[in-house]
Amino acid sequence: MLRKLSTSIALVIFVAGCGSTPGERAVTGSGLGAGAGAIVGAVTGLTVVQGALIGAGAGGITGALTDNSNLNLGRPIWEWGSGSSTAKSGNSHARVRNIQSGLARLGFDPGPIDGIAGQRTRLAIRQYQKSRNLPVDGQATRSLEQQIVADANRA
């Protein structure tokens, strides 16, 4: 029983690495933790619901506490095949790299050009959005990428 539980916890910790932000990792970790916990609950003295609740909590906390330097499994599961990729770059990391590069050429400091929408990148996006009288949300969207790349090419 303890071995099954520890294996499930290890799986949740590993898979909670999906996503580039703590929020994405928390959501991914919660969902996967709930699934793993339900299985543990079914094969142990817990109920399926108890196992799912414990797993969701453990997975969510683990996902929120990890960052890309601990583990980077790429885009969150809910983005797989969603069409959220850019036509030019093929994935959200490439989109963020394009945005970071353009922001740097325009004089905004996105931090390292690494394809990770970290705190400095989101701050630079918000500064850019504010300077262009755009809605300020700090999100690395496809339309923002197109606008920044166009602005950087004109500069």
Description of the structure:
This protein is mainly α. It folds into 2 domains: 2-78, no CATH class; 83-154, no CATH class. The protein is built from 6 helices and no strands. It has helices spanning 2-15, 22-43, 48-65, 92-105, 119-131, 142-154. α1 packs antiparallel against α2 (22-43), α2 (22-43) runs antiparallel to α3 (48-65) and α4 runs parallel beside α6 (142-154). The longest helix is centred in the N-terminal third of the chain and has 22 residues, at 22-43. The protein is rod-shaped. Mean pLDDT is 76; it is low at 81-90.
Quick one: overall form? Answer: rod-shaped
Average pLDDT, all residues: 76
Question: Count of DSSP helices?
Answer: 6
* β-strand number: 0
Separation of the first and last Cα atoms: 63 Å
Which terms summarize this structure?
155 residues; mainly alpha
Helices, strands, pairings?
Layout: H1 2-15, H2 22-43, H3 48-65, H4 92-105, H5 119-131, H6 142-154
Helix pairs in contact: 1-2, 1-3, 2-3, 4-6
Short description, anyone?
With 155 residues, this protein is mostly helical. The protein has helices at 2-15, 22-43, 48-65, 92-105, 119-131, 142-154.
